[in-house]
Design brief:
It is a single chain. This protein is mostly beta strands. Helices cover 7% and strands 37% of the residues. It has helices spanning 13-16, 133-138; strands at residues 9-10, 21-28, 30-31, 39-40, 50-56, 66-72, 90-94, 97-103, 106-113, 115-117. The chain has an 8-stranded mixed beta sheet with strand order 1-8-9-6-5-2-7-10, with no helix packed on it. Strands 3-4 form a two-stranded antiparallel ribbon. A hairpin with a 2-residue loop joins strand 8 (97-103) and strand 9. The chain starts with 8 loop residues before the first strand and ends with a helix.
Length: 139
């Protein structure tokens, strides 16, 4: 059985980010090819623009707690509101998948999500946060 290159394996938010995820920034992803000018990244599976959500993962060990989640969406994802009185913007992701790859002898992975949402509060559903024209207008 062969698994095609670039296959995205499903994973749950709690498996990947057991202590949550805090958004630092959201920006258009850039694609780099050797010998060519950098250009805006486009998802090879959907043809949609790719956005990178830069954040921090409190469960990460060591000094590097940085994490990146990519979202393919026509519109720029909008991070949830900051927690009152803090600069922290907690987020959860729907439709998380990982694509493993090997670079310099190390196995790593690219994290993909369908959507970024505000974390649910007790008794309430998660608030929509990305991939919609309304979310982009709110930014």
């Amino acid at each position: 059985m062969g698994i095609p290159a670039g296959h995205r394996f499903p994973i749950t938010f709690d498996e990947l980010f057991p202590q949550g995820f805090f958004v630092l920034s959201v920006e258009r992803a850039t694609e780099y090819s050797e010998g060519k000018q950098p250009r805006p990244a486009v998802d090879k599976l959907t043809g949609l623009p790719v956005w990178t959500v830069q954040g921090t993962d409190p469960s990460a060990k060591g000094k590097n707690t940085g994490a990146v989640v990519k979202i393919a969406s026509e519109y720029q994802p909008v991070p949830p509101e900051a927690l009152a009185g803090t600069p922290f913007r907690p987020a959860v992701f729907r439709g998380l998948k990982v694509t493993p790859y090997v670079r310099d002898g190390w196995v790593s992975y690219t994290v993909w999500a369908e959507e970024m949402l505000a974390p649910p509060t007790p008794g309430r559903a998660p608030k929509q946060g990305s991939g919609t024209p309304e979310a982009s207008k709110a930014a």
